[in-house]
Model the fold of this input.
Amino acid sequence: MRGRFAPSPSGALHLGHISTALLSWLQAHSMGGEWWLRMEDNDPQRSKSEHMHGIRRDLAWLGLHWDVEGPLQSDRHAAYAEALDVLTQQGLVFACQCTRKDMEEAVRASDQSWGSYPGTCLHAHLAMDGPYALRLHHSEDAFVLRRADGAWAYQLAVVVDDQAQNITHVLRGQDLVNSQASQTLLHQKLGGAPPKFNHAPLWLGPDGVRLSKRHHARSVQDYRLAGWSPNALLGHVACALGYLPEPTPCVPKDLLPSFVAHPLRQRAIAPSEVLPLWV
Ligand code: GLU
Done:
C-alpha cells in the first residue's frame, strides 16, 4: 500500500490541507503502508519554491512526516510527453483552440449538459504542434492534457505520477471528486490500474464556500506564530473529523485506532464547528 499527499505549491497550507494530509497519513499508517509527499508544481505561473519550503516545514511541524518525496512535476516533462504520445497513438488526442468562454457559450447554445465538450474543434484537425491546447477525446468529455501555453494539465500529470510512483491509495479533498472519472480513464488508457480513491470532507469559510486563499484563511504558519502548538491544532482538526470526543491535544499516531474504527466523515466542516480555530 502506498498513499500520498500532493499539494500544489501555490500557497500556504490551511485547515483543509491539514485535514486532508492527516487523513491520508492515517490511511497509509493504518495499513502499514508508505506515505509520499509530491509537490504538484505543474503550473509554472502559480508554483513558488517558497511555498514548497513552507509546506515541508509545516507538515514536519505537525508531525506528518513523509517516507519519500517524489520528484517535482516540473522535472517530469519527458514522462508526460511520453504518456501524451501513448494517448495520441490511440487516436485519443486533438488540438483545440476554444477558450473557456467559447466553450461555455457553445454548451449553453446547444443545450448540452455542463461539463460536456461542445465538439467545436474535434474535426478541425488543428496542428498538434501549434499554439493550441491538447485534449483527450472520450465520449462526451474532452479534458485538457496540455495547455496552449505548453504547461501540462493537472489530470495528465497526476495520473502519470501516481502510476510511476505506484500509488495504490489516493485520499484527497471532495473538491476533486469529479476528477476521479477522468483519471480512472487515463489510468486505463495508459495501461495501468487506477488507485483506490477516497475523499476527505471540505472545510468551509464563513460564506459557506470551500476554504481558500480568498478567505484569507489562516495558514499553519499563522497558527504557529499565534502561539498554537501542533498538538493543539491537530486536536481540533481530529475532533471535527470525529476522531476525538473533545479537542484535546494529540499527535497523529494517537488517532490511528479511531481512524480505523470510524467511517470517513463526508459532511463539510463549517467554522461554527471549530470556533477556536477562527477567533
Ligand atoms: N495538487 C492538487 C491540489 O492541491 C491535488 C491533487 C491530488 O491529490 O490528486 O489540489
Q: What stands out?
A: The beta strands are 2-5, 34-37, 68-69, 93-96, 133-138, 141-146, 169-173, 196-200. Residues 6-8, 40, 158, 172, 176 surround glutamic acid (CB under 6 Å). The first helix runs from residue 15 to 30. The first strand starts at residue 2 and ends at 5.
